[in-house]
Each structure stands twice: as structure tokens, then as C-alpha cells.
Amino acid sequence: MSLNSLVEIRDLNFTYDKRPVLQGINMTFPKGKLVAIMGLSGCGKTTLLRHIGGALKPTKGYVKMDGQVMHELDQDGLYAMRRKMGMLFQFGALFTDMSVYDNVAFQMREHTELPEEIIHDLVIMKLHAVGLRGAQHMMPSELSGGMARRVALARTVALDPMLIMYDEPFAGLDPISLTVIGDLIRRLNDALGATSIIVTHDIQESLKIVDYVYFMANGVIVAEGTPDELRASDKDFVRQFVHGEMDGPVPFHYPGVDYRQDLNLRA
Amino acid sequence: MERTTLDLWVGMFVVAGMAALVMLAMKVGNLGTYNVSESYQVHAYFSNIGGLKPKASIRSAGVLVGRVTSISLDTDKYEAHVVMNLDSRYQFPRDTFANILTSGLLGEQYIGLMPGGDEEMLKNGEQLKQTQSAMVLEDLIGKFMYSKAAEPAK
Amino acid sequence: MAVTNIIRAIGRRVVDAVWRIGVVARFFFLTLIYSGSCFRRFHLIIKELFSTGVMSLIIIVVAGLFVGMVLGLQGYETLKRYGSESALGVMVALSLVREMGPVVAALLFASRAGSAMTAEIGLMKATEQISAMEMMAVNPIARIVAPRFWAGVISMPFLAAMFSAVGIFGGYLVGVVQIGVDEGSFWSQMQAAVDFREDIMNGIIKSLVFGTVVTLIALFEGFDAPPTAEGVSGATTRTVVTSSLAILMLDFVLTAIMFRGA
Ligand SMILES: Nc1ncnc2c1ncn2[C@@H]1O[C@H](COP(=O)(O)OP(=O)(O)O)[C@@H](O)[C@H]1O
Ligand SMILES: [Mg+2]
Known about the structure:
By secondary structure, chain A is α/β, with parallel strands linked by helices. Chain A has helices spanning about 45-50, 75-80, 100-110, 115-130, 145-155, 175-190, 205-210, 225-230, 235-245, 260, and strands spanning about 5-15, 20-30, 35-40, 60-65, 70, 85-90, 165, 195-200, 210-215, 220-225. In chain C, helix 4 runs antiparallel to helix 6 (about 140-180) and helix 4 runs parallel beside helix 8 (about 195-225). The radius of gyration of chain C is 22 Å and the shape is globular. Chain C has helices at about 1-35, 35-40, 45-80, 90-125, 130-135, 140-180, 185-195, 195-225, 230-260. Helix content of chain C is about 90%, strand content about 0%. Chains in contact: A-C, B-C. Bound molecules: adenosine-5'-diphosphate and magnesium ion.
């Protein structure tokens, strides 16, 4: 294991009921870097993140975080490891029965014995970082999609994790919120000295902020490189993805019977 | 710890629940009336107890003075053995008469105590010697029919 | 051919049901062993006591009043035939304390608080709040399930007692105030016939059992719900149906044990 990588994935295989979802994945996430994993919906990105978080056991291979193999940890070890991670879920997953303030304070109250005054200052600082200090008394149901994502971001970094994972942080956001979140992800990573993994299919936004990209399709890595390398790439798949072309290696049509046959036309 | 209105509501809920329990215990149940005072035990044999049940009341001059604790069949005498708890505030002479009575025509059966004239009082564990069994309606009707039949026709 | 298929289908259902019971038992066990932290942080239970207990108060009080008034009316009509109207208090109080209080309060609790619990937890699951909590190294059974479980178990006997107390008051209103049964014999006969240990304690034990079962079913269904809108609504319905049936069946069993031959 190299000294400056935080997470290493080696030959990771995973099957859901005999259906292979991940096959022979090898990835390295260097400390302090922001790495993107891209691919079409259903290619196994969330499944990969769940392996890094230790929520799923690989069929073969391993995920190593901070020198320890995730699936070999017991419950206490796993929970200790998870305290060093933060994960932003696709739609924020804010606790709906708590205010914005209490959401951000949640982990501090659960995992530390800090007095309430210090928690207060920390929460205000985190909320200030995402620009929502003024929304501290609101309930999650009163927030817009972009605001909810920012609160979730503040909650994710509440305990200054070493590793931050983002599952589709841009999904369903308007262009302004999208830029704001992208910018926050980069700045938080650098300010906290953390390592970030961002799962997305928003190629344009992420190429602006990340250091390295893995492309996945059908459970395998099909391309990788820095944003500049990918922009210059002449691989068909990458070209289609980067430039948003409609047809290419990824077909527009889902496999089906012959069109003419479906319309009951005689050949 | 800071107080919230939520705590107040929950407090009121708990107080109301407790109050309901206390009211059930004292006003509805018998915790307020008996069990609190000391009691002593006496027993008696009856040739027939009719419908008498454990926990039936024991009254003297209509006043509740105790309860039946257990009923069993004594297989030596083939008589019903009734154990009862009496309130220690009430003492009865040793020759007190125990009678199984019915409240109303179809009501519950209870034991009525009629004090005798003995100077000595009943002590814990002693036996009431004089008893009268329950009236059984079928027997009564039978006797009545029999005496009617025996009357000379006019 | 067809017969073996039917037998196989029945067999699978039985195995499924037994399996599910096993899962519920493990869930119950986990809830108990992870209960320590919520007793140390009692405000978590207080918060849930509000949403289970306090929010069920109105329905319990109103229902109790009306059930008691109906008992008073029906009881009077029946007892009048035997000339024993004075036993009205006994009848109303025993019906409420032994049966109607624990059972009807539990049925109302299942449909008011139980269904809300299932829906809440099912939605937390559907919106990944539970996964998020696990990723934050917080055990959802300790943090979400256990406080709700104890709040349900604690509030049920209180609710049942309030139901009975208000119901007796309703019976008093109809019997004594409106119809004119003698007030003295209403209360005194009641006190003479209702035993604290036999009747009231047994009623409390019943409501504790019902509270445990209803809350457990509600929490399990929520935790087990498929994370979709249909999944959550199906689980909510199952909570009400399953816990109502469980209440009525358990009531029979408990009554048979408690009041047998007395
Ligand atoms: N709980 C599950 N059971 C069975 N299959 C699943 C489950 N979760 C995901 N899958 C399948 O695994 C594949 C990868 O899913 P996922 O990792 O969520 O994709 P992505 O996040 O890239 O859109 C999909 O084909 C999906 O159908
Ligand atoms: Mg996904």
C-alpha cells in the first residue's frame, strides 16, 4: 500500500443474486485528492460507494481504507472507521424530524461529549461555510433542493472526516445551485485536507473540479485519467460521454425485438 | 437542563395517567376500603354453599366486615370448607352464627354473621361452629310442592 | 400434480410466517439490548412520549367517554329487567377495567400512534435517512427504534387507565345524572365488587402486553417496509391489521389465564 493513498480497491467483485454488478474493479484514491467516478445509471456506482462504506461485503477482492480491509472489521471497528468518513446521499437524506441546526449537530451529540455551547459554535461555523447560517431554525421540509443539499453537506463534514463520499451531488439541481455545490465540494476538500470521492454523471461540472476520473460501464472500469487527458481522449465511449452524443457505443435503443416485427409488419 | 413546552405536555400526560390509575385504585376498586386494615382468619364448614365464590363479601348487620379467601371440599366430612378474612376492627363472639345469604332474589351470595352471646371473642384461626347452608331454590320448591300435596283437599 | 403444488404453496407460506416471526423476535431482542443509551438520554424517550402518548390523548378520552355512556345505557336496560339497577356501577366498571379499557385503548393506539410510527420509519428508510445514520456510525435501532419502543410501552397503561376512568365517568353521567340510578349504590357496589389486584392490576398487565406488541409490530413493519411509496403504505395497513388481530387474540389468551374460574 502506497503511503499517500487513503483508499485502495483491489480486484473488487460483487454479485446480487448471481448477477454480476462489479467485476474486477481496481481504484486508488490518493490523500487530499478529489476523484470522480462516472458512468451511466445502474452501472454500479452506488454499489461501489456502499462497499467503501462497509455496508456491503464483496464477493471477491477488497476495499482497504486507512490500511484496514473494510469487510474484515467487526461492528465496533466498522463504526470507528465510519466516524472518519462522511457520505452525502443522493437526495441529502436529512433527518426530517429535526431542524437544520439539529441535523448538523447530530453527529457531534452522538459521538462527542462536547458541551452544548461548543456544539453551537461548531454548527454555526459549518452552516456558515455552506452559506446557510440564516436557515438554522428551518425544518428540512421548508428547504429548496439546493439548500437541502448544502445542509446535508454541512452535516457530512460536521466531524471533519478524512474521506468524504458524494453520491450524485448534482442530481436535480438548477444550474446555479449546481455550480455552488461543485465549488463547495472542491473548497471543503482543500480546507479540510480530506480526500473526496464524487459519484456523478454530470461530466461538465465535475471535469471542472476533480483531479482524476474513473469511467465505469457495466461494472468494469473502461477509462481513467485526469480531466485534460479525458477531454483529449479519442476513445468512443469517453467521447460520447464527454460530448453528450446521442448514439455511440452506448446505444439509444434498449435491446428489443426487431422494430418491424413489433409493429406487426410483414418482412 | 432547559425546559421545553414538550416537557410540559408530557408531564401533564404522565400526571393525568397517574391520576386515572389512582382513581381506579381508590374510587373504583377496593384499595381504598379494604386491604389497608389488619385482618384475621376464621373458618367454617357448610353442608352446601350454593353459589358462594371466593372473594364474596362477609357482612354483619349489612356492614362489610370481610371476604371469603378460599373454598374447598373437605373429603373427611364431605362438607365445604370456607376460609374467611375478617377486619380486625370487628370482633365477634365465639358462638357467632354464619349464614349463607343471597342479596336480592337473584343477586350474589354472601356470608352473614349473627353474633351470639359468648363472652369470649373469636381468635385468629378459630372455627365458626354454627353454620347454616345456602338456600337452594330447587329444594325450596320441592318442599313447597310436597307440603301442598300433603294438604287435605277441601 | 396440482395437489403437490398446493401443498408446496402452503408449506412455503408456513415457512415464511415462521421465518418472519423469527426475524421479529431478533428485532425485539436487538431493541432490548440497544435500549441502554436511550435510558441514559431520557429526553429521546420524552420526545417520543409526546408523539405517541400526548397525541393519542384526545381520541382516547373522547372514545372512552362515549363507550362508558353506551355501557351505562345498555347496562341499565339489561339490569332493569332483573331489578338490579344498583349494580350498574359494577357492570360499567368491570367491563371497562377488565376488557374495554385495555382492548379499545390498544386498538385506538394501534391505529393512531402505531400507524404513524410505521409510516414515519418507513419514510425515513425510503429517503435513506436510516442508511445515512448507519454511515454516521450511529445504530438506528438504538437511536430510532428503542426510544419509540419504550415510549409506546410506557404510554399504553396510562392511556388505558384514562380510557377506563373517563368511561366510568361517562357511565356515571348516563346512569346516575341522567337516568337517576342511586348514586350511593352506584359507587359502593362498584367498590365492593372491583378488586384492585384481580381486576385493576390485571387490566394494567394486559395493557402493558398490548403496548409492547403493538409498538413492536409498528416499528418492525416500518423498519422492514420496502423503501417505496407503496411499500410504506402497505406496511402501515399491515401494522393496523396485524396489531388489531394480535390485540384481540392476546386478549382472549390473557383473559383465560387471568380470570379463569374466578
Ligand atoms: N438491493 C439490490 N438488489 C438487487 N439488485 C440491486 C440492488 N441494488 C442495486 N442493484 C442493481 O445493481 C446495479 C447497480 O446499481 P447502483 O450501484 O445503484 O447503480 P448506480 O448508482 O450506478 O446508478 C443495478 O443494475 C441495480 O439494478
Ligand atoms: Mg446510484
